[in-house]
Specification:
Elements (H helix, E strand, L loop, with lengths): L1 H9 L8 H25 L2 H12 L7 H6 L4 H13 L3 E4 L2 E4 L2 H8 L4 H9 L19
Antiparallel strand pairs: 1-2
């Protein structure tokens, strides 16, 4: 909804939206949500943050040993954190098929909780070369 609102605000009356307008709207949405995302993150326990980071990386990674080791998270602690995140409404799914409910929050967590990389990914900019790829990253499409 918020993304649609910003896209509407950035589109001139009688004009069609385009990728440039989409990028402006997406950037403004991330700037608008930055404090809210920080507040959510800071309100979570350490184990919940680590579990959320694993889930943001992709399906099945919360129980993968290498990810748990990297995040310094015991499997039982990860399960408990998962249960709390489900109860609090931050994630949904069953078994290894977990996902963060809010796709913008998921993108923010996956990007290391920074706005800049999200905007670059959305614009299809490769950090190494700076080349535009011309597509919106699928993780940001709602």
């Amino acid at each position: 909804m918020l993304l649609a609102h910003f896209l509407w605000e950035h589109t001139s009356p009688g004009e069609e939206s385009n990728e440039g307008v989409w990028q402006e709207a997406l950037n403004d949405v991330y700037l608008e949500l930055r404090d809210e995302f920080d507040s959510i993150w800071n309100g979570l326990a350490d184990a919940e943050r680590r579990a959320l980071a694993a889930i943001a990386r992709g399906p099945g990674l919360l129980t993968k040993k290498s990810v748990l080791d990297e995040l310094q998270l015991a499997r039982s602690t990860a399960r408990d954190a998962r249960d709390r995140l489900v109860d609090e409404g931050y994630i949904r799914g069953e078994g290894d098929e977990l996902e963060i409910v809010d796709p913008l929050l998921a993108s923010w967590v996956a990007a290391g909780r920074q706005i800049g990389p999200l905007v670059q990914r959305a614009r299809g900019i490769d950090r190494g070369s700076g080349d535009r790829q011309g597509e919106v990253a699928p993780i940001l499409v709602c």
